[in-house]
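Chapter summary example: a protein plus adenosine-5'-diphosphate.
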Amino acid sequence: MQSDCCIDVADAFAKRFGRAAVAVAVAPGRVNIIGEHTDYNDGFVMPAALDLETRIAFAPRDDGAVRIYSDVVGEEVQFAFESAAREKLPFWALYAWGVGMSLLERGITPSGLDAYVETSVPQGGGLSSSASFEVAVAIACLGDKWTALDKLDLARVARRAENRYVGTQCGIMDQYSIVFGAEGHAVMLDCRSLESRLISFPEAAALVIADTSVRHVLGESGYHERQEECARANSVLSSSLPGVKNLRDVNMPMLEGKKNILGDAVYRRARHVITENARVHEAAAAMTAGDLARLGALMSESHLSLRDDFEVSCRELDVMVESAAGLPGHFGTRMTGGGFGGCTVSLVDKSSAAAFAGALRERYQAAARLQAATTIVRPGGGARLAKPRETGNA
Ligand code: ADP
Ligand code: MG
């Protein structure tokens, strides 16, 4: 499957640019299985790279120019990294330009490129097509030398492109899981140490991503408000509890002792972060033991905490979660991503996944009067460089 796709994108490259691609840079999308709004609190997250990918067939250019075509946009753009005028680039090209600029900041000169981009990662749907695109561009810019850049540095370069050159504030989780992901595994990441371990995803399970089709405007302001509330909790708790740097170091008895000075809303935000960190640890243990019922229950508990304590859900996400409950083969569902719209992720029995997805779409349509798009995924491999004619998985 992957090898055929690499051949397709290499063929498309050859048709457009009139020469052969030297290689294909491949980077997956990702889904966060559990651990929401914990990343910017030095906490724990458990995302997985997906078997949906961005593939870039490319060949270096000696003149330093970048000619990049994206088939999802249906547009080709040409620029040079250092001399490009940001305001003249279409928005999507900022991601590619930003990657080159952040490599330059790291003292690495990115290669000029002809590049043909295709992707199976849905755009703007919470599966991190943006980070997938960035990481694939970074690998294309580095070519054969991409492994000379430490994996964590590769993730940092891609994140910097998004933060500084596109202007979107995201943590490192997306790029990290895309770089460090491994087929059939979730990535348990400690956002403080940036150390991770791979956890085998049970063979009998699949994940169903369901897009509510809504993105509420509250998304961005709400996200910043929650970050500020967590910062307030961190400052109160760290100044009054020895050894506490932030919420990561706080347990429930410690939090209860400070409830009065925090106020109800900040107390509940903190409670979500503390209980969610504990759920990520429990989820890692449940996944390791192949206990799908427990893992699913933890995902459903995570949703309730995000809905009631962190208050980042919305009616449509709640309707999707309620619609999933009780369907055959279903173990648990939660919102995934920042909230206020976007997607849910469900843990299901692999053999029931297609029927589950169909029934979920029907129930959601009946209850919310909206169409949901569903995607069935399993954890896929991390970013890599493939040969255009590769016949096996790299
Ligand atoms: P998500 O990362 O959840 O998919 P974002 O809004 O963060 O959503 O990123 C989506 C944007 O990233 C797209 O609108 C587009 O600008 C850019 N992008 C992602 N993948 C590609 C691609 N293959 N080609 C061109 N632009 C892309
Ligand atoms: Mg994104």
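Key point: The first strand starts at residue 23 and ends at 34.
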